[in-house]
Design goal:
With 249 residues, this protein is of the alpha/beta class. The protein is elongated and about 65 Å long. Helix content is 43%, strand content 18%. The protein has helices at residues 14-27, 48-57, 74-88, 106-119, 138-155, 172-180, 198-209, 226-239; strands at 2-8, 35-40, 62-67, 95-98, 127-132, 160-164, 186-191, 215-218. One of its GO terms (molecular function) is lyase activity.
Amino acid sequence: MRAILYICHGTRIKEGAKQAAAFIEETMPLVDAQIQEICYLELSEPSIADGLAKCVQKGATEIIAMPFLLLTAGHAKKDIPEELKQAAQHYPNLMIRYGRPLGVHEHIVDVLIDRMKEAAPFQEDACVLLVGRGSSDPETKQDFDQISCLFKEKTKLSDVHIGYLAACEPTFEDALYKLAATKSRQLFIVPYLLFTGILTKTMDREVRKLQTEAEVYLCRHIGYDPMLGQILAQRVEEAFYEVPLCFQS
């Protein structure tokens, strides 16, 4: 029997974990699998090992492990596979296929634009700071550059900048204060983050410190959107055809 194990990042902020679970619960009806479970890489419960065990207890002989992440970086490439390897040692006959994150997708950029429009109508000379989580993996910066290009193309805005919350430059703080010192009339800070958490609260604190004549709008995180649910369901379907993970040394 096939099961889907959705693996979220996890957060110390309980509301963020609840948002992730609610998103996946909205998506589950779009997926053809009797067993569907949610777990977290870190900071929240249940763990990956607990999620795997629950799937097996319900009769799963094949598991599609889905990293519910925006971009492919260290968590998707290394951390989650290592956790799966450790947990799978208890189930030698279990087949595990590994899906891929949501990735760069124009419909996710459409949601970013919606979040900006929710904050305020934007003018043609609006300044935008797209904020990513950041990673030491160079693929993250490549992906984010692509996202920025798509964003510019769809909005027709030219004054679009990037900042990262960790492990990449320019940092969010450096980019924010640099842009706040310009003569822009509108400054939109658009988080490329799925859910609320420590990072969104950090952003909010920094924005409140700003001293600028510009109208500043901190947009909300991406959150649930039917288009994103469709993308996640599509990634699950694609994973049905992935080669099973091999954990032998």
